[in-house]
UniProtKB/TrEMBL annotation:
Transmembrane segments: 83-105, 346-368
Predominant cellular place of this UniProt entry's protein: membrane
Name under which the protein is recorded: ALA-interacting subunit
Keywords: Membrane, Transmembrane, Transmembrane helix
Top-rank lineage group of the source organism: Eukaryota
Family: Belongs to the CDC50/LEM3 family.
Location of this chain's protein in the cell: Membrane
Keyword hit for Transmembrane: yes
Species this chain originates from: Tagetes erecta
GO cellular component, one term: Golgi apparatus
Pfam families: CDC50
Length: 387
């Protein structure tokens, strides 16, 4: 009996934590029944293995929204034969006239394209065209005749076209200083213009204005057009974008140290004229996206009659022979869609023709092989049962 009393007394004893203990509730934890301690330990292990409980995981559910759950009201057309046929016919009747009008406008444009880079090589240099174009002493004057196929009403635009010239090359495009072009205060900002950044680099160097490979490779072929012993005036004013002449090229920036090295890349600039007025340079500095491109050279404000013979006196200065490029002179009128380009009209006619063909096919199918909408006999299991 005494032993039983002592056992109960020990079992009911409450172990209070020591006031200076670093773990004040350690004794209470130790006083818990061993089976309860084991259950708690297993539960903690399951929590660590399986992650948070289901209720805790559900607490991370995103906020409900009809937009994110794609439950907003929507209208979806039922693609009945009538809807499909009407849609194809509407596209066809809209696109085919636009295509015809675009082709008609493009056909009204009169365009003369003359390639002269091969014809202007002297016979003595046929085997070494690079030596011909790099020889500064050799006369580069070339005289050719072109015939006007149809009457050309003013304004007649004069372009030069280059083929296989990659103005979109990454290093070429970045080789310029827009700050230097815009203001004289930034004439020493030439870090992006290497190798055409400065001259006399041994002593720190003087900046080249305009610097960079784009300006250095400025196109420098010239054209003079003669009709019946009368020189046609080629107006070179207004050939650049106004945003370029007013904003991108400063009126207080003048050429400096340009094309003074031994290796000449292209044309030279008049150092007494600000960059904002040198529109040949401004047009050239707007780089092309494709290797074949045209740039505006000038405008002719007189008409040319059909079968007129135009004598072209040109200076074949620009080197395209080193990289297999081509040079062409282009004379062209314009219409409401721009220059001569049949692609737009052909594209509209192609899409319109395909839609018209599809509409006719659906009409024939609907007439000769009609299919009622919602007919359960067309379900796969019903069709198998019939077969």
């Amino acid at each position: 009996m005494l032993l039983q009393t002592q056992r109960n007394t020990c079992h009911d004893r409450v172990n209070l934590p020591h006031p200076h203990s670093p773990f004040p509730f350690a004794n209470q934890f130790n006083s818990i029944h061993p089976q309860i301690k084991l259950q708690k330990l297993v539960a903690d292990m399951n929590h660590n293995v399986n992650g948070p409980s289901k209720s805790k995981r559900l607490s991370k559910k995103p906020q409900y929204s009809r937009f994110t759950q794609q439950e907003l009201p929507a209208w979806k057309p039922i693609l009945t034969p009538g809807w499909v046929i009407a849609s194809f016919l509407a596209i066809a009747f809209l696109f085919i006239p636009i295509g015809l009008v675009s082709l008609f406008a493009s056909e009204r444009v009169v365009e003369i394209v003359y390639r002269y880079d091969q014809d202007c090589i002297p016979e003595t240099y046929r085997g070494n065209v690079t030596a011909y174009i790099q020889n500064s002493v050799t006369n580069k004057t070339c005289i050719e005749n072109i015939t006007v196929p149809k009457k050309m009403d003013p304004p007649i635009f004069v372009y030069y076209q280059l083929d296989n010239f990659y103005q979109n090359h990454r290093r070429y495009v970045k080789s310029r200083s827009d700050k230097q072009l815009r203001s004289a205060a930034y004439e020493f900002t030439t870090k992006d213009c290497e190798p055409e950044a400065r001259v006399n680099t041994t002593w720190g160097g003087e900046p080249i204005v305009p610097c960079g490979l784009i300006a250095w490779s400025l196109f420098n072929d010239t054209y003079n057009l003669i009709k019946q012993d009368k020189v046609l005036d080629i107006n070179k004013k207004g050939i650049a974008w106004k945003s370029d002449t007013k904003v991108k090229f400063g009126s207080n920036v003048y050429p400096k140290n340009f094309q003074t090295s031994n290796l000449i890349g292209g044309g030279k600039l008049n150092e007494s004229i600000p960059l904002s007025e040198q529109e040949d340079l401004i047009v050239w500095m707007r780089t092309a996206a494709l290797p074949t491109f045209r740039k505006l050279y000038g405008k002719i404000n007189v008409s040319l009659e059909a079968h007129d013979t135009i004598t072209v006196v040109l200076q074949n200065n620009y080197n395209t022979y080193s990289f297999g490029g081509q040079k062409k002179l282009v004379l062209s009128t314009t219409s409401w869609i721009g220059g001569k380009n049949d692609f737009l009209g052909i594209a509209y006619l192609t899409v319109g023709g395909i839609c018209l063909f599809m509409a006719l096919n659906f009409i024939l199918l609907y007439v000769f092989k009609p299919r009622p909408l919602g007919d359960p006999s067309y379900l796969s299991w019903n069709r198998k049962a019939v077969n």
